[in-house]
Amino acid sequence: MVAPPYPVRIDRPPAHALRSTPHFTSRSIVTEVVRMAEGRDMYMEFFRQADTDGNEFLDIDELVAMMRRKGYKGSDAEIKDMFRRMDTSGDNRVSLDEYLYAMGALPPQAHNWLQSY
Fold first, then answer.
1. Which residues of 42-66 are buried (b: 16+ CB within 10 A; e: fewer)?
2. What region holds the EF-hand domain (predicted)?
3. Looking at CB atoms within 10 Å, which of 54, 88, 106, 107 has the fewest?
């Protein structure tokens, strides 16, 4: 019998079981959650600044204006394409949830759960 090329630990469940458990027992999962939380604050601040009318949604004009203020040099067509990809609900406005999901600061499970309401 050939030994596996990695250490085998029998004192914990297999990796696939860790992903399905509600609590975080894997260091890599915790690291990913911390990374997402740190980036989330930055993205939330951008969203708040861009939402000039305070309705908790971004429209295309707010996104274009904010991207220009932040120094984005691309075309308006490129920004509009970004907007369309972020607007997963198709209502011509981007919610904070949609924005955080597009930026990778909201896991797909949470985004899908929030979309159901």
1. ebeebbeebbeeeeebbbbebbbeb
2. 38-73, 74-109
3. 54
